[in-house]
Amino acid sequence: xxxxxxxxxxxxxxxxxxxxxxxxxxxxxxxxxxxxxxxxxxxxxxxxxxxxxxxxxxxxxxxxxxxxxxxxxxxxxxxxxxxxxxxxxxxxxxxxxxxxxxxxxxxxxxxxxxxxxxxxxxxxxxxxxxxxxxxxxxxxxxxxxxxx
Length: 148
Known about the structure:
Blueprint: E1 3-8, H1 13-25, E2 29-32, H2 44-57, E3 62-67, H3 71-77, E4 85-87, H4 91-99, E5 105-109, H5 115-127, H6 134-147
Parallel strand pairs: 1-2, 1-3, 3-5, 4-5
């Protein structure tokens, strides 16, 4: 079963808690990287880096990060080598980011996405495979070159 590392700051905390329970019910191995309680003074980089580092060390795993806009978490996660984090708002974007970009971290906006919609987006993201089409492989190799 797929391993999912999940994290959130205060603005994404409620969404993270919901997805954590939902994904466990779907049979995923879910690892909560924090926040472990609602703290309006916490900082999203703390949790974004934890999840990104966990995913970078387990290339078969996926990450889900939740903050208010999803943008801050996405920026943080993409600082970690090997991470391709994306901010996604719907199922079509989730599918494209997996098939074209082989994204490995899904960033969700706690201020915008409903719990029900987040379940749908997470399902598509976690169950869509990279296409392995030559043009997409070529592009990912270029990104890897830039990283290192």
